[in-house]
Amino acid sequence: MAYYISQLINGICQGSIYALMAIGFSVVMGVVGLVTFTHGEVIMLGAFASYYAFAMFGNHLLVGILASFGASFLIGVVIYKVCYERFFDAPHHISLLCTIGMSMLLKNLAQILFGPNFKPLLEVLPNRFYGVGSVGISLVQLTVIATVISLSLLLFLFFNRTRWGVQLRAVCQDRKAASLMGINVKLTSMLGNCIGCGLGGVAGMLLAIYYQTLIATMGGPAGMKAFSASVLGGMTNVPSAALGGVVLGVVENLGITFTNASFRDVFAFLFLLGVLILRPEGFARKLGNRS
Amino acid sequence: MTLAPAAKASWSRGRIRTLGLVLLLLLLLGFPQIYPKSYVMGVMCRILLYAILAGSLNIINGYSGQFNIGHAGFFCVGAYSEALFAMKIGMSFWAALPLGGIMAALIGLVVSLPTFKLRGVYLAIVTLGASELIRLVALNWEGLTGGPMGVKGIPAPVLFGLRISKATRYYYIFLFLAVLFFFVTDRVVKSRVGRAWVAIREDEAAARSLGVETARYKAMNFMYGAFWAGIAGAAFAPYFKFISPDMFNLDEGFNILSMVIIGGQGTLAGPAVGAVIVNFLTEVLRPVAQYRMVLYALLIIGMMWLRPQGLVGVSNSILAERKAWRSRRKAAAPGGAAR
Amino acid sequence: MRNTGRNLVAWLCALLAGAVVAGAATPTYRIGVLAPITGSNAEFGKGFQIATQMAAEEINAKGQMTIELVVKDSKGDPKESADLARQFGDDSSVMAIIGDFTSSCCMANAPIVDEAGLVQLSPTASNPAYASMSKYCFSIMGRQDGEAPFFSTYLLKKFAKAKKIGVLWVNSDWGKSAHDNLVAQARKDGLDVAADVNYMPDEQDFSSAIAKLRQAGPDHVILMDQGPVPTIINQIAQANWKDVKVTTLGPGTSAQILNLCKQNAEGLLLTTPFFIDASNGPAKAWSDKFQSRAGFPPTVHGACAYDCTYMLAAAIKNSGSKVTRESIQSNLKNLKGFVGLTGPITFNKDAGDVFRKYLIIAVEKGQFVRKTDYSYAN
Questions:
Q1: pLDDT 10s digit of each residue in chain C, 378 long?
Q2: What's this model's pTM, rounded to 2 decimal places?
Q3: Dihedral through CA B169, CA B172, CA B175, CA B176, nearest 10?
């Protein structure tokens, strides 16, 4: 019994990281309206930004969050300019292929710049454990969950209580109408993209802290998990994406308890394919008319 | 009517093209005699292999407009089928080769079946997921595939008592398969089936309204592309003598995709050109291998910016549009039309 | 005064002539080196690179032959390794290969080197099935059906007095052979194999595997892998699993363990066929030289690579005037009385591998300390 509880806790913790990745992905998808393959690499770059920030300024969590958010935000600008700006009126597959190219570019540049090996990230948080025996939660896990919850709250406040947030939601719903209302659609789309990327970057930092290691090729699987999780919500609905992330984490970890650790990705893909085939538009009510 | 002179003009152009192809074929046949160095032969084998792989992906992406980015999965099925048939039940290469293609085609059918209603992006993701699932099955089903340790020591094909294992000899197998692929595909593309595919690509709704059974043709298209990828895989396995699941990961799929994008979609020559360019760059840039991938990425982005249909891709098609078709027409019609 | 100028010129001419004659006299032999210079086993790959370089420089300085090393990065990936092996095979100037590191890579290359008639002398492949794949396949590490049973009987049962064990192993050619041999012997020794968990190569997250092991309540866990071992040790500590003793088979006295695990590695037990400490005088000088070049101390893996280079040089020398790939193979197989840095090496009769003797090492106060003697197992 204790074993299953601890696996459940593992699942919730990992699920919350997936949730953050999926939230970022949904924000990008919703505001820009085009699917992106670059989210995985953005996550990876956020992890590396925090790694170097920790090395330069010491092991403070806030430093890591700011560094990873900031770096990914800036990368979001580049991705926007290269892959989206020109192609809003073009057939969707062109920007999709562009993002595939961009993700290849980022991944390989990262391997050249940061080296192709695993980099250890140790002792960012003290190794404390709260619980009895093997059932309990570690400080790292608590911090991860707390970070995700606070960032989600911040995002919620941003979307609903600030002017920029309202503009973002308007662009999400209907680009033409939004531009008729005087909203600078291009700038807003870029902002939305960058916020989504920033969130992905923080998720990358959390992944690195949780696994205590990072590597330039970690983007691929991370991006797939983000995708799987957000598909549950139709790819644009943020709360459903978060839920999808947690569900995915729990399903993965519980699935592993009954089979073998190597089946982890099998569950993620079966989950993804299941949702896509059964209900491609997701389980939430649609926010706008994005396909 | 100016039919007669027009017919004469295209006839001589066609004749020139045929002559060019025959010359190319003769050159390729004689190549090993001119330049028998093993290393060069290895590169040629690889180019021919990828010409088939990229070509088969192009059938799916370039001719029917479906978006498949998980082609490595079919490659994997073909390779493992051949390896397992040869090693577990001692089947000869020549029998296992078409079987590998058929296995891949069946998997192609399974993948395409649930996706008829899915639009572009969703289909792409499903193909991605399917490719990874195939690889994960190969990775986890240890009893059958050897798991992460792969299949080692795959037996070489034997033709009339002659063992074909060095690159110089294996080259002819790849050449034969590549020529066969192009010949058959040329026929298929020009047939009714091929025209249905192109119609689906350009405007699926219009095609359906004209009576084209899109679901059936899309499935056929997927199976055809998967079949040839499986053939390529089945030819590859004994050549490399060793296969393991991580040879068929997403990166490999993107590798094949980049050849199609760079070389050209929607034409037969496009993917072949792409295969030559990408593999040539691989060899030339081997000392700085990481930069090679950066270069491909830049080429892909560049193509999307400047020429989305690829270098030798089909120009008068939706693949070449950088602006959506409707907005272009709106711009052309004076004063904007009310729709 | 005038004569010094002319004398100087004469000396220079003599030197030049000598150099030309010497260069013309020593034939050059190209030897390929396959190693995971990047990837999770990079520490060991770099060890290969540096150790073989040191050996080649020493051999070249003696003047009888010139060894030219062609080092290629296989990234620890069997596909990459097979590709590079094929290239070496096709390059007729390459006389032999030193490498690769993992049994997976070596076994993948076996049919290729067999076809090319090219010796593949691996310093570290320990899967018992490897060397019998081809007469060109050799390894000097010591087979897993030697090390794993030693680990079970002498380290676990006799030294650590373990009762209930949990095994965590990487699902690769090496890991499987190590696991199978260990568990078979453990059962014979009367140990209770309470948990048996494996993972794919390149796995990063071991938390669920660790939880599974923990659930069975073993008193000792055995980690069977190389590069990822420090990460696993850290994740065990992170899971707050304090009442278990950690042992490992595979990484040897890897510096990474000390660097990355720091406190968490305290009390770790492992086996290795070779260890350099104060009692091993001549090896200490070698180890210092290695450390000054590499920046980290050597493990048995690097020392084996060093010995491999010398073995090939001996095989080349014994080939006499006609040195071919074939002659290297037969002279290597029949090499008698070779004593390297890692001890005496003679290949088994029916396959190109060896059996070794082992030591037990512990981590105490952040250092590797030898706990037993070679005679312990006898």
A1: 455 556 555 555 555 555 455 445 678 999 999 999 877 788 899 899 999 999 999 999 998 899 999 999 888 888 788 888 888 988 889 999 998 999 889 988 888 898 889 999 999 998 888 888 889 999 998 888 889 999 999 999 999 999 999 999 998 888 989 999 999 999 999 999 999 988 888 777 788 788 889 888 999 999 999 888 988 998 888 778 888 999 999 998 888 888 888 888 999 999 988 888 767 777 888 888 999 998 888 888 999 999 999 999 999 999 888 889 999 999 999 988 898 888 888 898 888 888 888 889 999 998 899 888 777 776
A2: 0.83
A3: -150
Tell me the ipTM for this assembly. Answer: 0.84
- Which residues 224-263 on chain B approach chain A with CB closer than 8 angstroms? 250, 254, 257-258, 261
Contacts of A92 (CB under 8 A, 6+ apart): A34, A35, B120, B121
Contact criterion met (CB < 8 Å) for C260 and A136:
no
**Nearest CA of chain A to the CA of C233: how many Å?**
11
In whole angstroms, give the CA distance from residue C361 to residue C359: 6
Q: Please name the residue of chain B whose CA is at the shortest distance from the CA of residue C172.
A: B149
> Closest Cα of chain A to B86: distance in Å?
28
Sorted by where each starts, the structural domains of chain C and their CATH numbers stand as 26-142+282-345 (3.40.50.2300), 145-272+359-377 (3.40.50.2300)
Q: Is B171 on the interface with A (CB under 8 A)?
A: no
Domain ranges of chain B: 39-247
CA distance A3 to chain C (A): 6
